[in-house]
Amino acid sequence: MAGQRSRPGSGDTPPADKARRARELREQLEYHNHRYYVLDDPELPDVAYDRLLRELEEIEDKYPALASPDSPTRKVGAAAPRTFSEVVHAVPMRSLANAFEDAEVEAFDRRIREIIELEKGEVEYVAEPKLDGLAVSLRYEAGWLVQAATRGDGRQGENITQNMRQVLGERTSLAGNGVPAVLEVRGEVFMAKEDFLEMNAAQRAAGGKTFVNPRNAAAGSLRQLDPLVTARRPLSLFAYALGEVSGGDVPGTHWDILQWIRGFGLPVCDLAERVRGVSGCLDYYHAMRERRDSLPYDIDGVVYKVSRMDWQTYLGHTARAPRWALAHKLPAQEEMTVLERIEIQVGRTGAITPVARLTPVFVGGVTVSNATLHNRDEIMRLDARPGDTVVVRRAGDVIPEILSVVMDKRPKNAKPFEFPDRCPVCDSDIVYEGEGVVARCSGGLFCDAQRREAIRHFASRKAMDIEGLGEKIVDQLLAAKLINNVADIYHLEKEPVAALERMADKSAENLLNAIEKSKDSTLGRFLHALGIPLVGEATAEGLADYFGDLDPILEADAETLQQVPDVGPIVAQSIHTFLEQDHNREIIQRLRDSGVRWPRAQRQAVRADSPFAGKTVVLTGTLSMARAEAKKRLQSLGAKVTGSVSKNTDYVIVGADAGSKAEKAEELGVTMLDEQAFRELAGDGD
Ligand code: IVH
C-alpha cells in the first residue's frame, strides 16, 4: 500500500495508530475527569485537558468508527462517587462547546443563522462571564428548595441539598410573585478571589487542607460530607439558566429569564449583556478580557447564548452541549511546563528566595520563564524537583507561581531539591526567622550579594538618588575593590573610576558630580537609603517627621521609636538593632563626615497646656478616625501612646466593640474616655 493514502470518511477503517491513540486519550481523559469532578484535585491545567479532548474529537470526527458512545467527547463530567446519594436530573445538565479563536465564534453564528434560516439581520445573544466554579441545579417546589445537585456526568449528579442550604442561607425559599410550581435553576457555585486567599490563609494557619485555586476550593468546600463545614466556607452563587419548569410563565428570551430569576431573589451576575451578532460578541469578549484581573472572581471565558427561547428549542443540542450556546475561552492563566532548575537568590537584607527556572511557556498573555517558589516550606509542600513538569499560574501583574507538580510526568531520576544551609554567595550560615519560614544569609555586609544589593539600594532614585550609579557600575566598582560599602562611594576618585571598562574621563566626572550632588539630601531619604530591615520609604519619612534629626533617632530606645505613627514593636526593634551595631554606626558617621546632610526640622511643637501632655494613653476599639490618625493627634498633644493597659496608663480611649483592654482598664481603675470625651479634651472644635 506504499504511497497510497486512504481517504478518510465514515466507511474507512481507521489506521491502527489512530485507534491506539484514541484509546490512550480516552483513558487519560477518564482519569483526569475523575480527578477534577470527583476528587476536586485536578492534576492538569484546563488548557492541557482541553488539548487532549480536542485531539480525541479530531480523531473521532475523521474516523467515526472510533467514536464509542461513552467517549468523553460525548458526555460531561464523571460519575458521582458513592458518598452522596444520587440525583437523576429531570433535564440533563449539559456542557458548552468551546471556542478559542474569533473564527470559531463566526462559524458558530453562521451555523445558527443557517439553521434558523435568518437571511438578514443579526442574532441577539446574551453574553455572560463564564464563571470558574462548579455547576449546580437547584430545584424549588412551591417556592421552597427541595433538592440541590451537582452536575455529575450530566445525567445524574450528587445530592448536595443540605450543603446548598448553607450556601443559600435565606434564599432557600423564593421571593416575589409568580413563582412556578416547579422551578429548577442552574448556576455556578464559586469562591471570590479574596475569600479564597483568606480561607487558604486560615486553613494553612490551622494546618488544614489548602487549595490551588478558587475553583478547587469551591468544589472541595461544596462537596463536604458535613454541611457545617460547607457553612464555614465563603461560597457564592450566580444563577444563569433553567432546568425543569412547570406551572409558571417562563419569559420568551434568555435575557428576560435572567431578570425573572433575579426577581425571585436569586443572585444573577450583573455583567451579563445583550449583544448583537458576531461583532457584539467579540466586543464583549475583549472588554471582559481587559477587566478580567480586576473582577472579584475568576472567569475563564465568556458565554454567548441565543436569547430567543423558541430559537434555542429549535436549535437543540448535541450529546454534550447545546447548539445555541458557545463558551469563548480567555487566554489560560495556568499552563504546564518543565521546571529546569531551582536557583537561590540573595536579597539586600539577606533574604533567601528560591526561584524556579522554567522552560519558557506562554501563559496569562506573556512568555514566562521564571516563577517564585516563595520559600523552603513551599518547595517541600509542592515536592517540586528539577526536571518535574509543573503547573504555573500567571494572573495580571502578579509574579508567576507554581501551583502544583504533575506527578504523572515525574522523571524516574528526579531528586528532591536540597535547600542549602549555607549562602550560595558567601558561604555564611543561613538562619531562619518568622517561625522558620524566612531564610536569611547571616553574612550581612560580608556577603557580596547583600553588599551589592545594599549599594544599589543606597544609590537608587528614592534613596540617595545618585544618577548613573546603576547595577553594572556597582558591580564593576566592587570587583575593582574601589568600594566595599556605601560610605566608600563618597571617597571615590576620578582616575581609577575612569580606568574602569567602558568608562572614560567624561563619564567618570559625571558620576562623581552626581555623587557630590547626592550629599544634599533629606533625612527621610537618608534613613531609607541605609536599608534598615523593615524600613521602607514611608516608615523612613515617618521617622524623619517625628524626630526631625538623626541624633534623637540614634539615641531612641525601642519604646520611644514606637511613638512614630505606624511603627509597631517589630519594626521598632529592627531599627534599634540596626542602629546599635558598631559597624552601622561607623558607616553613618563616615557618611556624615564626608558631607551627607539634610535640612534639620523642628520637632512638632507640643502643646504643654494640653490635658494629654506627658500622659500615657492606650487606644482600643473602633474610632471614627483611623487609629494612626488618633495616635498622631495624641502625640501632637504631648501624649505617649502605648499598646497595653497597665497601672501606669493614664487614659484608655474606648471606641466601639472594645474588648479586653477596656476590661483591664476597668479592673485597674484607669480613666476611660469615649470618642466624644476624647475629642472634647483634645480641644476639637476649638
Ligand atoms: S450555561 C446548557 N452559563 O461552564 C448550558 N454555563 O463548560 C448550561 N459555566 O457546566 C451552561 N459560567 O458549569 C453557562 N454563564 C454561564 C456559565 C456556565 C460558567 C460553566 C457551567 C457549565 C460549564 C460548561
Number of helices: 24
Strand content: 15-25%
Tell me the total number of β-strands. Answer: 22
Q: pLDDT under 50 segments (min length 5)?
A: 1-10
Helix share, percent = 25-40%
Mean pLDDT: 90
Rg value: 33 Å
Morphology: globular
Class derived from helix and strand content: alpha+beta
First and last CA, distance: 103 Å
Main beta-sheet strand count, sense and barrel state:
5 strands, mixed
| Unique ligands | 2-(butylsulfanyl)adenosine
Q: How are strands sequenced across the largest beta sheet? A: 2-11-10-3-9
3D structure, described in words:
By secondary structure, the chain is of the alpha+beta class. Strands 2-11-10-3-9 form a five-stranded mixed β-sheet. A hairpin with a 2-residue loop joins strand 13 and strand 14 (366-372). Helix 1 (16-38) runs antiparallel to helix 2 (46-62), helix 3 (102-115) packs antiparallel against helix 9 and helix 16 (523-529) crosses helix 17. Residues 94-96, 128, 130-131, 135, 151, 188, 240-241, 303, 322, 325, 327 line the site of 2-(butylsulfanyl)adenosine (IVH).
